Amino acid sequence: MSFDNSASDGTHKNGEDKLFASPLGEVTGFRFDQSVVEVFPDMIKRSVPGYATIISMIGNLAERYASSNSHCYDLGCSLGAATLAMRHRILASDCEIIAVDNSEAMIQRCQTVIDADSGEVPVQLVCSDLQQVAISNASVVVLNFTLQFIHPEQRQDILANIYQGLNPGGVLILSEKVTFGDQPHDELMIELHHNFKSANGYSDLEIAQKRSALENVLIPETLDTHRQRLKDVGFASTDVWFQCFNFASLIAIK
Ligand code: GEK
After folding, report:
1. Residue with CA closest to ligand 1 atom 9
2. Which of 7, 21, 65, 206 is the most buried (most CB within 10 A)?
């Protein structure tokens, strides 16, 4: 027996991502609104290969790099997965996590998630464009699949702001969907990612419509472009610590 539990906004009551399951007359640009909030954990887990590993390792890195009396930032925090990973692994005393997102719907739900969590490290949630946030006294800064949603021309200033606000020895964790200069390799990675999504239950229609919605909204760059930009703003040491197909995470140390 099967039943349809679709809500009128296209989400499923059990949090299953069905946002792009029905044919949409016109696919508009992707937005982090309430309908996305409702399905976000399911959506990101089924769409980003390695997401759970990256979140867990952000905790690992925070344990290693968070220093006493400093700030740890989660920029583009969504529902706070990276914030919670850090919160439960930070050993240094008197740290504060500052989690930022410019989606009101995300921040509201994130507050509920944080309130229900028993971690002891204080968390300050800020609803703001991350470009308006002053970074100061930072030992850890996380940009977990966020920079990709900001226009490439603005990315250098964002990284420069993060660099100036990091304490010496502090770390930036930058996770992104990436593209490859070699076209056959790029096409192979895209195909393998689509196979990953198919295996996670997304139909060809869902994959195609989501891809259209993300066009010009999520703008991937090559790993070389990311490395060069990090070097240009001053990071002494930068490299990839995780990659699965066209999804990668870098660490950059000040
Ligand atoms: C996670 N880090 O689960 N300022 C602030 N927030 C922004 C901006 C901006 N300019 N642009 C986009 N966002 C999370 C996942 S999701 C990635 C990050 C994804 C926010 C946006 O509202 C959304 O919540 C988040 O960045 C991107 O580890 O959905 O693929």
Report:
1. 129
2. 65
Q: What is the pLDDT of residues 51-89, one digit of tens each?
A: 999 999 999 999 999 999 999 999 999 999 999 999 999
Ligand 1 atom 27, closest CA: 146
Question: What is the 8-class DSSP label of residue 243?
Answer: E
> Which pLDDT band, with edges at 50, 70 and 90, does 188 fall under?
very high
Question: How far apart (Å, rounded) are the C-alpha atoms in residues 186 and 102?
Answer: 31
Q: What confidence tens digit (pLDDT) does each residue in 238-254 have?
A: 999 999 999 999 999 99
What distance in angstroms lies between residue 100's CA and the mean position of ligand 1's atoms? 9
Check: pTM over 0.90? Answer yes or no.
yes
φ, ψ (nearest 5 deg) of residue 191: -65, -45
User: Tokens at residue 88, please?
Assistant: 């439960």
Percent of the chain with pLDDT over 90: 74
- DSSP code for 25: S
Backbone φ and ψ of 12, nearest 5°: -105, 145
149 lines ligand 1 (CB under 6 A): yes
Residues 6 or more apart in contact with residue 175 via CB below 8 angstroms: 54, 143, 144, 145, 242, 247, 248, 249, 250
pLDDT score, position 3 = 28
Residue with CA at minimum distance from ligand 1 atom 13: 76
